[in-house]
Amino acid sequence: MPPKSTKKNRNGITLLHLRDFVRLITVLLFLPWIAWVPETIFGAELEFEMEVMVLLMFAIFGSFWCGWICPFGNADYFISKIGNKLFPSLQRGLPEKVDKPLRYLKYLFLAGFVFVIISEGIDYFWGDHMIMYKSTDFTWGYIQIKKGLILLVPFLIPRFFCKYICFQKAGYNIMNRLLPITTIKRDTSACISCGKCDKVCPVQIQISKKETITGDDCLGCYSCVDKGVCPEKANAMSISFLGKKIDPLLFAVAALLFYYLVTGFMHTAPFHSMFRIVLP
Hints:
The chain is mainly alpha-helical. The chain is about 50% helix and about 5% strand.
């Protein structure tokens, strides 16, 4: 069974409603009959999944992209919720003895994609994703299987793609370990070991056994730091940015504004002329 989300309590608004609203908008913008809206409003086609921008987000805001903006992760999230409503007795995670070794599979996919990108001379960060996916049988097969895994498997196994298949998540796990600007912290002296943070984690990280979460397959959903999860008397969970404890809701708003404003700027003529590049 997937973890239950926290709800509004006497402490005020949680991240839940903002997060789900952003997830829904992201999914809708990637549907063919909705995707024309940004072009109609802004007069130009906007690429909301520019890999260079995703890289920048991970460098500054940790895995926030995965839990809030990634269209495939968000599709997985909503399909999992539908599956939980339709097949609550069938939806469950894999046994631990299968789950742990299977999580390394995405690192094998990462190695395969790195080899293809280098050997084929693909402009991964600035170029069109589909050029990369169409370059070899391996990459084309991956994108086809990816669609099926995201559209069907989450009905029964939540976050299957994110945990086991996503080669980008594997790469950014490594990056976040090497560059821990944004992390989730557990104050071990205040923690009362209630395990509530473990229960709300969508990828089953044993948060109550760690002091710092960075990489570790964390999706940056920040359910574990949401109000109403960690008991108020403990208040042991927090987001740390450059070593400073910050408010989760303000952090989320700042990350979203940064992402959409910079993404929009990267599609403007001044940006193109400054760097003399052609964006998708």
